[in-house]
């Protein structure tokens, strides 16, 4: 098997799996219980929180553990909007966001009467901070953008957007799911007020993530207990939280090495594909090397994925959250329009630091056989 769908999820580090298994067997108490078993569980959760906080350079008390990036996005957008609607009813986001953002703001619009602006990219697909600045109104209370696009790898100008927003009352939320664990991120230095992350994108377990928040008032999304300092009810997912912290710690120790490796793999892939007729859906000046969105003229994406799958190769057409849906990529549609044939030809190949050079070569050989038939 050749796994090249790391933007959907990454393999778990063996060291992470081992530590999680140890916690499951030895530290199974409820962190909210006051007996020794509970105190032991509470301690490892606290240690994990401090590990993540130190990597991000933020106070540990400003981290909320969640079930993943989607919950963190919903918690921010719905929680902040409902708690602060006396300041305004306008939300700004982009047309290329993950559906956990797009659907959350649509819910706020349709059920609670908020006004939402979906900012499209420039005609060439690039995205500049001035596009967000032009969308701001006096009544805007929150701006939400992704750090890197999950379908194309495009990096948005986070620091520039934050700087333009800073004089405004609006808070800035960043969906950092596709960059956490891949590049260093310091929310306080970047001017980020809320930041969402998910462990399974950086070799941690599925079903756990976190939200960094600055000191702003926001409503709880989940009610029923006083966990997470009363901000998110529910018994903590102890072994997964520990696994997430371990995965982020391991990734942070090798940021530069891993980034350079993935960059080299990306270059190798493009070099070995050079004999074929293909195009790259590359937008903006900065792109994460982990994601390559390409199209082969007149090759239907669904047919190509099926043939690759039969040969033991896993890639995708875009977001895993829309897999199986008949709608084309909303990200590519925001650039090309809904009727462009590229929406049916493009596939996403996504790499990780666990991908090998040999796998790239084998993938290209398999792809060669398919495309030449």
UniProtKB/TrEMBL annotation:
The keyword Metal-binding applies. The keyword Iron-sulfur applies. SUPFAM superfamilies: PLP-dependent transferases. Its cofactor is pyridoxal 5'-phosphate. Pfam families: Aminotran_5. It catalyses: (sulfur carrier)-H + L-cysteine = (sulfur carrier)-SH + L-alanine. GO terms for molecular function: cysteine desulfurase activity; iron-sulfur cluster binding; metal ion binding; transaminase activity. It comes from the Bacteria. Residues 2-362 form the Aminotransferase class V domain. Keywords: Aminotransferase, Iron, Iron-sulfur, Metal-binding, Pyridoxal phosphate, Transferase. Its EC number is 2.8.1.7. InterPro entries: Aminotrans_V_dom, Aminotrans_V_PyrdxlP_BS, Cysteine_dSase, PyrdxlP-dep_Trfase, PyrdxlP-dep_Trfase_major, PyrdxlP-dep_Trfase_small. Belongs to the class-V pyridoxal-phosphate-dependent aminotransferase family. NifS/IscS subfamily. This is cysteine desulfurase.
């Amino acid at each position: 098997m050749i796994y090249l769908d790391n933007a959907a999820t990454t393999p778990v580090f063996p060291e992470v799996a081992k530590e999680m298994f140890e916690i499951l067997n030895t530290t199974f108490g409820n962190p909210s219980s006051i007996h020794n078993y509970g105190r032991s569980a509470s301690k490892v959760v606290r240690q994990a929180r401090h590990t993540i906080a130190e990597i991000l350079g933020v106070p540990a008390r400003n981290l909320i553990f969640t079930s993943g990036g989607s919950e963190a996005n919903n918690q921010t957008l719905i929680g902040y909007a409902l708690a602060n609607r006396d300041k305004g009813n306008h939300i700004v986001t982009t047309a290329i966001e993950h559906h956990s953002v797009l659907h959350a703001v649509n819910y706020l619009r349709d059920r609670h009467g908020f006004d939402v602006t979906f900012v499209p990219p420039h005609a060439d697909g690039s995205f500049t901070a001035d596009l967000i600045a032009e969308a701001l109104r006096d009544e805007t209370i929150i701006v939400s953008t992704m750090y890197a696009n999950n379908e194309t790898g495009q990096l948005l100008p986070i620091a520039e957007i934050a700087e333009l927003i800073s004089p405004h009352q609006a808070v800035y939320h960043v969906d950092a799911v596709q960059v956490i664990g891949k590049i260093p991120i310091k929310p306080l230095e970047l001017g980020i007020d809320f930041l969402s992350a998910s462990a399974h994108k950086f070799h941690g377990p599925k079903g756990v993530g976190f939200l960094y928040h600055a000191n702003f008032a926001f409503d709880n999304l989940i009610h029923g207990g006083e966990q997470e300092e009363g901000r998110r009810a529910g018994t903590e997912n102890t072994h997964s939280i520990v696994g997430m912290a371990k995965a982020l710690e391991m990734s942070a120790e090798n940021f530069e090495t891993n980034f350079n490796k993935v960059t080299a793999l990306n270059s190798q892939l493009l070099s070995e594909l050079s004999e074929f007729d293909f195009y790259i859906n590359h937008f903006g000046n900065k792109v994460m090397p982990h994601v390559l969105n390409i199209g082969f003229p007149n090759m239907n994406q669904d047919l190509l994925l099926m043939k690759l799958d039969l040969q033991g190769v896993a890639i995708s057409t875009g977001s895993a959250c829309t897999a199986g849906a008949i709608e084309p990529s909303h990200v590519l549609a925001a650039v090309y329009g809904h009727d462009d044939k590229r929406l049916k030809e493009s596939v996403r190949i996504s790499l990780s630091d666990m991908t090998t050079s040999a796998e790239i070569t084998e993938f290209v050989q398999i792809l060669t056989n398919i495309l030449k038939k």
